[in-house]
Amino acid sequence: MRSLVALPLLALCVLALAGPEAPPKAALDEARKASNELLTSVRSELLKAVEASGPLRAIVVCKYTVPEIASAVSRKYGARVTRVSLTPRNPSLGWGDVWEQKALMAFDERVAKGEKAEGMEHFEVVDEPSGHFLRYMRVLPQLPVCMNCHGPAEQISESIRSQLQHDYPFDKATGVALGKVRGAVTFKKPL
Q1: Helix %, strand %, coil % of the chain (to 5)
Q2: Cα separation of 44 and 57, whole Å?
Q3: Could you tell me the residue range of the domain that residue 152 belongs to?
Q4: What is the pLDDT of residues 89-111, one digit of tens each?
Q5: Is 93 a member of any domain?
Q6: Is 154 helix (H, G, I), strand (E, B) or coil?
Q7: Whole-number percent of the chain with pLDDT over 70
């Protein structure tokens, strides 16, 4: 009788030690595809705006066009696909949840230890009160073009600083060094 009780307990211990559940390959591929689609679309819009009108126009794209792109990608994939940061420009849209904040802090730690931010990702399957979800994040590294609006304050032009102060009175998204983590694209979908 003891062995009948011990066997299920042993199985639970093995499962607990196994770590987080790995996502199905197709679901992970979809998360990567959706994240890449968001990044590609955003970068394309930002580069067009900067080339046509200069970096000041990028603020308009980020404020109005990027949320529309994120919404369209989210609808297409039946998931929440957006950008988050520990230092958001717009706190009402850019704060990550607890899982996202932990992943962002882990990205910062990895970069601090010498790993390159470009291409960095984190994923796992999580159980939440509302269900079983694939969680995926991909780093948004600080690139040269990002320095115009997200770099150290003394390197941002007066016109951009003024516009940011007007549009984003609670802005925390400046002072990011080149190659560091500016934020991440996040994907969350029920499994």
Answers
A1: 55, 20, 25
A2: 13
A3: 23-190
A4: 998 888 999 999 999 999 999 99
A5: yes
A6: helix
A7: 90
